[in-house]
Amino acid sequence: MTALVTGPTSGIGAAFARALAARGEDLVLVARDAARLEEAAAQLSAEHGVAVETLVADLAARDDVLRVAARLEDDARPVDMLVNNAGFGLRAGLLEPDWSVHEKALDVMCLAVLVLGGAAGRAMRARGRGAIVNISSLAGWIAQGNYSPVKAWVRSYSEGLAVELHGTGVGVTAVCPGWVKTEFHERAGIRTSSIPAFVWVDADRMVANALRDIDRGKLISIPAKRWKVAAFLARHAPRGAILWVSRLLTSSRK
Ligand SMILES: NC(=O)c1ccc[n+]([C@@H]2O[C@H](COP(=O)([O-])OP(=O)(O)OC[C@H]3O[C@@H](n4cnc5c(N)ncnc54)[C@H](OP(=O)(O)O)[C@@H]3O)[C@@H](O)[C@H]2O)c1
Q: Which of 184, 191, 201, 253 gets mutated to test ligand 1 (max ligand atoms within 8 A of its CB)?
């Protein structure tokens, strides 16, 4: 079995790569930083005895996305699981005159997810098996700048993909984590000091829970009990209350 993981050099993607390698799966690792990719590949193959291939690609660049898509459709080297994980946090507001970071977010976290999901879906459907995992977020149920719409899109896209792949043997899961200590917040310049300690969950634990849901064929995975409570409230509380919480969270980041 082979899994392709985007963004495996840090955080949630690295935890997916470790967990899948520990299950004996060969890996294809995709990210921008070649040195970090090589380091991760060497460590994973030494620790778990699996074959690890690396693909240096910027998922904001169309040609790079097409190269990764071609790898997913290479029948001679089948990929059984795609983890569409690469992404980043967004601190920029919606009124910022420079909207380049929003464009990049849509390219990396929506367009690349769609192109890679389509490529994997075609190849897996032809083989009658496979799994496509898209990393969404609890943020997709609230209203924070462009990040919430992006992650709501990932969840909604996963539902559409699951509808199109129904009965083909290919599973689709949107994983919706809450708060995970990774490089995400620091890279985006988001302060974490006001976020209460009890909402954070360790990446390895979160991924173990997510893999259980993926193996069971769950479409939406909320991979921690405390986040399930938050998701329930976000889905069922009056929308005005959710917008009030969203305002608090947005202003705490400034
Ligand atoms: N951390 C959280 O609290 C949290 C919560 C909910 C959802 N998420 C989601 O989880 C996913 C992973 O985030 P994380 O927290 O693990 O962040 P992270 O530690 O910053 O890792 C991000 C990974 O994505 C890669 N990446 C970023 N931009 C890329 C690009 N243009 N092309 C290719 N690879 C790229 C990075 O590698 P390179 O820099 O080498 O390219 C890195 O491997 C994201 O989709 C994020 O939105 C995170």
A: 184
The rounded distance, in Å, linking the Cα atoms of 17 and 15 is 5
CB 93 within 8 A of CB 251: no
Lowest model confidence (mean pLDDT) among 61-75, 196-210, 240-254: 240-254
Using a pLDDT cut of 90, give the percent of the chain over it.
94
Residues tagged active-site:
147
Mean pLDDT confidence for 76-101: 97
**In angstroms, what is the span from residue 145 Cα to ligand 1's centroid?**
18
How far is ligand 1, taken at its centre, from the CA of residue 184, in Å?
6
Is the shortest distance between the CB of 13 and ligand 1 below 6 Å?
yes
Between strands 81-84 and 52-56, the pairing is unpaired
**Does residue 11 have its Cβ closer than 6 Å to ligand 1?**
yes
Task: Assign a CATH topology to domain 2-252.
Answer: Rossmann fold (3.40.50)
**Hey, where are the domains in the chain?**
2-252
- What is the pLDDT confidence band of residue 135, given thresholds at 50, 70 and 90? very high
Residue with CA closest to ligand 1 atom 36: 7
